[in-house]
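Consider the following assembly input.
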Amino acid sequence: MKIVVKEGVNENSHWTKVAREIADYTVNELHLSFGNVEFRLVSNDGLAAASALYASPFPTWYTGQNYVLRRERMGARYESLYEMVGHVYKNISDNEEYTVVYINKADEDFQIKSVMAHVYGHMHMDYNNYICKGERVDLAREAAFRERYLELEKILNEGGAVDGKAELQNHFDTSQTLEMLIDLYPESRTEADNSFKNYYKTTDALPEERVYDVYKFLLENASMNPWEKEFYSMTYEAARLYRTARVKIMHEGFATFVQKKYALYGEKDPVTSTKMQLFIDNVATPSNMAQLPYAFGLKLFERIEERGNKGQFGFGYDLLSTDSKRAYNDKSGKGLEKVLDSLRFSDDLGFLNSYADDLFLADYVELLKRSIPEDFEPQTEKDAEFKDWVDNLTTEGLKFMLQVRLERSIPRIELPKNGTGFIGGFGRGLLLEHDTSFIDRCMNSYTVSDGDKIMLSKLMTLDNHSTGESLNRLSRMWKHPVYIKTIDADGDPCVIGSNGTSFKTMPVNQKSKGLVRW
Amino acid sequence: MSDLGDSEEKYKKKVDEEDDDLDLSVEDLVDIVNGGAVSRHIPLKSNPRIVYGTDEDGSEGTGDQGGDSRADIVFGIDRKYILSQQNKWKLKFTKPNRFRSTQMEFLVSENGLQENEEETLEAMLDRQNQTGEFKKKGFHIDVKEEDIRYDIVRDKPIPYKKATFILMRDVSPSMDEVTKMADMVALHIILRLQEEYKENVTRCYIVHSSGAEEVSERDFFKDVYGGGTSFLDAYKTVSAMLSGTPYKSLLGYNRKISWADEDVYVMHITDGENLDPEGSVVEEIKSMLPKITRLMYMQINENRDGWPKFINEIKQIDSTKLRYTEAKKEATNVNIAKALSDLLGDTE
């Protein structure tokens, strides 16, 4: 494993030495494993640019907005972005693959060291978690996308009176609408689901089997010019990063866990160690829900380690009473092994269900309540709502909130078998389905109040302006109406349909054979 | 940074095209004219996606990506921004050249000063030959003052470095609805002049209804209306400023504009209603015309048909100094751009 720190084109020998020492600690003491890393020390501006291009590699207004936003917020110290793990690239000097990591050179030395440890945690996740492993993106490929985008702008401009930039921009905007329609769970599909079939048959109805990757389906079956197809292929590939949203808590939680281990046991200077611990406390604040992945994730990994060290796993342990569980300790000392094992084959939801037991959640609720000072005075309505929620929070309420938050991160949209062509009650079009099965999971797994049920319906409906406008775009792309079956704010089935220019919501008539006509 | 390409420009262009939030008030533009800047909070833009939530609760953009929260971008609008906006409107303005003074311009040949040196040497040789010095000493370089030769010298027109901008506005009640458009165009012109004259631009403000008086900038941009409309008094006030004679002023002093040493721009904003005899206004303008650089007349009255008579008469006297426009009352970028082009833009 090779570690190097560069500033501009030159190696920074001091920081390279430091980075290698920290890497040695994480590998030898924490048993992490990852590939080569190239740290790049950059300014606020450089980090803002890297962050913007990571979100989208294409030189569009969206990238410009992200760049301006980051640059301003970091410049005003309203937000701190300390690091950014980027893409992989092949270093031609040694022909080896490196992951590029951007670090803010304006940070203080202890922050840079602490952040390096954090980064190694991320790297371990990227190399060992089964979801992250499949989504590593090549820097050269991203650069190629960028160049091709600029080429297409030029070609379109030269092709006639068309404003090439504006036309390509429109397609980029459409691709943003599409990007959450990729299959977020490819690992759960069977070989039959993923096999290529000949979709072009004599009947109008497509597809033969249920489709989970609607974006890919549109890419392969919508009528497009060759250059449009090429463009959407590029944006489809860039959209795959969304799959890593499923492991946000694990990613940040584990990285913070490694960072804290280094602060406590790896850093020899006590003053630096204390500064690092305070730094971590500032980031992983339980009372800041925006930092939940850091705070909750860290606590959960620490609990897994504690339980692993005490042998608190297994069928026998599960049968114990609550008090006995707390007291159990076989001193097996396998905490770290358990932590590393826990992050390999899970996403956040699986992680939560496997390891966030009632004891842990009860402790976390207490921690949350203690994190709000007694004399705290809410300054805004949101603050007051949050305080009220925390004051009344129970273990089950926390678990419910987490389950809803994770299930709801990105809507699962699918295209059922024969979901195109002439659809009964609709005419020719594309009929999508919103997978709402998780609502039952949330409702049935907990004791849910009527208020929670109402809240859940409102949170789980897709009936809103943004969805409607999205369907307008899909319809223009598909060149026929597009519909989506979902639920309304009251939890009743409905269909939202678009003919390309306007959309409307239609109630589903369960008794009639078909659905209300467009 | 190069990987970003023109992303930032594309984003700013999108904001320019879409955002009413960037609309400036007259007060904002006055601040900018006086060297300040204003800021605007622009909400983040996003493309529609299939997302959870109802419209009343605010549907989310990308769902729970963790960490990031919605934010605004703070857009700073200063003089540079306004000038770049004018450039996007393709406003081209060049300072007129007036013969303030002459300078001797030494023409040079294609190979620098060679021709002058050559002529000087030739003159030197002629002298040496005539005086017998050449015969005595042979060829030697000994240039005396009388030998020095130059090519053609000519007068070079120099643009003025200073300008005075006199802004006159009709404050009769009928101008109530069109104030913003009038003021925005005038302020845009001031900014452009400041750019061209490196901020050496003196501003004078005259309001007129049944009479006319010079007021402060603060009072000029206050919306106070009343009275009938008399153009004559307004133009007489300008003439008084140019000649250094007394006129009515709320500033506590009268000014004298050194029109011989600087460019003078006069802008008149009105709805076109004038109670004075037309002939008197024409005579007044005729007398001031040689002293001013440009007279800009902006009429904002969609109900009025045609121009006041003096416009045609002044055109016949000196059309190069007169620019006029019929402006719409809505202060949109399109309307402002057109008015600016008519009043200030270079003609083909």
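Chain B touches chain A at residues 1, 3-14, 44-55, 57, 59, 61-69, 71, 73-74 (CB under 8 Å). Ask yourself how this observation constrains the way the partners meet.
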